[in-house]
Amino acid sequence: MNMALLDKDMEKILFDEAAIQARIDALGEEITRDYVGKEPILISVLRGSYMFMADLTRKLDLACTVDFMAISSYGSGTSSSGQVRIIKDLSDDIEGKDILVVEDILD
Length: 107
Hints:
- It contains 3 helices and 4 strands.
- The chain has about 110 residues and is an alpha/beta fold.
- It starts with a helix and ends in a 5-residue tail after the last strand.
């Protein structure tokens, strides 16, 4: 995406690229340490978190798998309806697995 197109709509940048990358590096180290000997499944809630999850996954020094979900509680509006719809469910069974949910918006 052309960042110049987005620049006109931004009031200010809260976290620059270097700060975000430093945090991804730190999270990668922490997750690697916390999940030694395990194979966590990272679940990205589409669409907003998939780029972040890709960067994070590259920083992990352990075996892991990824999966994706798409959910919605907004319908056609801009505020949550309170009703969550699963648009795309997980591909595999996660029972008994170590799960890390990677999300961009928490309501």
